Amino acid sequence: MANASGFFTPSVPRLRSKIQPSIGVSRSGFCFSGGISRRVVCSSAIEGAEKHVSPSESRMPKLVRKGCKLVGCGSAVPSLSVSNDDLSKIVDTSDEWISVRTGIRNRRVMSGKESLKKLAVEAAQKALEMADFDPNDLDLILMCTSTPEDIFGSAPQIQRELGCRNSPLAYDITAACSGFVLGLISAASHIRGGGFRNVLVIGADGLSRFVDWTDRGTCILFGDAAGAVLVQACDAEEDGLLSFDLHSDGEGGRHLGAPINDNETDELLGSNGSALDFPPKKSSYSCIQMNGKEVFRFAVRCVPQSIESALEKAGLVSGNVDWLLLHQANQRIIDAVATRLDFPQEKVISNLANYGNTSAASIPLALDEAVRSGKVKPGHTIAAAGFGAGLTWGSAIIRWG
Question: What are the Beta-ketoacyl-[acyl-carrier-protein] synthase III C-terminal domain coordinates in residue numbering (predicted)?
């Protein structure tokens, strides 16, 4: 059975009425029994099997110690770069006004024949190439996005474009700027509790399509991008996901969102919820609506608490961490969180100035640049955190490579 951590808790048959096993899994993914906390996870993989077995095929479950590690990353951005000076020609703003308040100087925006699917596929291919991995050996593809180009999801189309012949499971995760962190935890849960071995996690968003380009408060913030990470099963001793902490608060949803236009839904429904006209009119989503001050307060309060909680679960302190990698929303938020956690600026990864807020893509995009530049090396420990619409937020303590 699955619990709040997303990891599998085995159902152990009762042998005698007086002997009842006490097994549970905390939110961090640690298993405890008899008051002794230790890292124990479950997988239905058959160890030593000569033939590759798809996770969708029926297998006898077996309790094994299993971990997961990040072995490859990739990213992709549109070709069109829009500078602050470019924006100053369409709204009342300036490079200084934007950079001082946000830290952003440029952002990438899809144009022409570019699409989010193509960016996601390119990022995925680069991650697989880094890991020297055949896409036909993938067991699962997770597409973390809030802006799919098909309302029913984009993951299966990405699976097709990658040329996966074994029909691995592929589905979307919608959690806005927290999406990639949730995708990473979901990948770990599938590996530890479902017997999956190779999971591709993609974070991709095209928020430029949902921006009101006449609104100075929001159009300066967002850009488009995609990033991907390959997560593989490994022995527990090599585990690269040390702990995590996840939360949601629907009460705060009013501060950041892009809901269906109210005037359109009001015209469609009567007071009792019945349709006034049939067939219904075509509906559309509004542009991004954000209360910047409230989102800032939420981020600088909740994100440090989440990272501290994850560090405690991993038995670490900030001094044990090599890098702080936050969702790239606003440089003021990044600086405030780093200060509260006592992280020096030289240990903070930030590429916000070049890309703006790319939502679910921001963490894997920044990670990919840091890995390829040689900044992040195998064995380095990273405290990563995503936060945004929902409201949702979460953190993960990971080890690269």
Answer: 311-400
* Residues 122/74, Cβ–Cβ less than 8 Å: yes
| Integer Cα distance of 326 and 137 in angstroms | 31
Spatial distance between the Cα atoms of 326 and 366, rounded to a whole number of angstroms: 9
Asked if residues 398 and 349 have their Cβ atoms less than 8 Å apart, the reply is: no
Catalytic residues, by residue number, are 177, 327, 357
| Nearest-angstrom CA–CA distance, 20 and 3 | 19
Number of independent structural domains in the chain: 1
CATH of the domain at 88: 3.40.47.10
How far separated are the first and last CA of the chain, in Å rounded?
30
pTM strictly above 0.85:
no
Residue 57 lies in a domain: no
**Is residue 126, in this structure, part of any structural domain at all?**
yes
Mean pLDDT, each 10-residue run in order, the chain (401 residues): 40 37 40 37 37 43 73 98 97 96 98 96 98 98 96 96 96 96 98 96 96 93 98 96 96 87 58 63 82 93 98 97 98 97 97 98 98 98 95 97 93
Give the full edge-to-edge strand order of the sheet including 392-399. Answer: 241-248, 392-399, 381-388, 323-326, 348-349
CA distances, 326 to each of 122, 301, 394 (Å): 23, 14, 10
Q: Is residue 129 part of a domain?
A: yes
